[in-house]
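hey so u asked for the seq, here:
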Amino acid sequence: MAGNLEGAVVVGAGPNGLAAAITLQRAGVQVRLLEGRSTVGGGMRTASLTLPGFHHDVCSAVHPMAVLSPFFQTLPLERYGLQFIDPPVLAAHPFDDGSAAQLLQSFDRTAELLGRDGDVYRRLVGSLLPLWPVIADDVLGPLGLPSHPIDLARFGLKALSPATLLAKLYHSEHGKGLFAGMAAHSMQPLSSFSTSAIALVLSVAGHLRGWPIPRGGSQSIADAMASYFLDLGGVIETDVQVTTLAELPKRHVVLLDLGPRQLIAVAGKDLAPGYLRQLGRFKYGPGVFKMDWALAGPIPFTADACLHAGTVHIGGTFAEVATSEEDANRGRISEKPFVLLAQQSRFDRTRAPDGKETAWAYCHVPNGSTVDMTEAIERQIERFAPGFRDLILARHTMQPIEMERYNPNYIGGDINGGAMNLAQIFARPVARISPYKTSLEGVYLCSASTPPGGGVHGHCGYHAARQALKDHFPDHAGKVIAS
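ran it, structure tokens below
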């Protein structure tokens, strides 16, 4: 159990705010966690967006990074009711001929199904599987002296390559398409350096830990984290809007699960001019147009693998996916957008009434776009699942500005908290020895705008909290892992 040292305020109860609060609390620092909405969660919330009885994940839905995260693996969240469900097919990528590439938890079977591209997959992904436990902390942390430099270099040589370059190693559209769908999670042009990193890490995650769905919705992850934090002795206050740092209770340190623009809003007049200028140069990536459906039955995908997949990458060939991602990053609207779709109710019957289904999807669009992508998204799904539209009972859409209104960290709908390009993977939001430190003494950033960036993994909050412990509570810095 945590000690009684008065010490910290954390603002924002998303995955990183919760991770920071837990890390500090179990190190013995008394933490007060403040959340602007009525419930904790940030990007981990579930709501009835369409019809009664249909439960939809508002933002994050499928969680490979949560189960792969070294930080999450230290949390006893199963004690608080968290259950993960593993679909038979982790991710499927359909093609117009009715076939589909697929990511399975079995590495050997995934490679086997790729046929002549199996050897390529073994070289690219298979060689990384034994490395991950060794390099995970370095990959999911700030730039610094690596603990295993040779192993990290072996990963980096592949990861820093543009996806367009590594895709040339594949011979078939199945191999190229599967790789494209993984790389497109970066929300960057596939010709950009480091886009292969996302593809490789997500593939490794699938084989080591799966791409699971939390039973009951993503809110269950947030609720379990909050319950654990409270049991450690932490305090949570909801419906607390923080407009200036002066409003916060006096504590030794403050950790903000906020992006650069929000930091400027609450503390701009107090920030050092040079630091303020650096924050102003921080770049945001494309936004997302998000959709949820209440359906009369399962999505009738032509490819059998898609019927058993928790996630379906809808975009066709590598060239089509690359064009869609290039469009979103160049301010253009794609006529055939790459669509990331999840069908949670196929494997979690708490999500919809008997005989009915839910579906969740989004596509990438230019930051702040106001174009309605409903028709384009549904046309893409219908392309690989004829009859999909006939099943729609109700739909709910969120434009980029609505995503930002829901979570102010999603500037222009950018759910990664800032562009995940090569310049901003580690130097986010500014280039500093510790990117979590602001120019204000005792004030730290712990959002996805810090390394390692977007995703439900908790490492932004974990590393920010460790920095705060090192700076202000050195006697407690060695107690970050609960006994």
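The chain has 17 helices and 16 strands. The first strand starts at residue 5 and ends at 11.
lmk if thats what u needed
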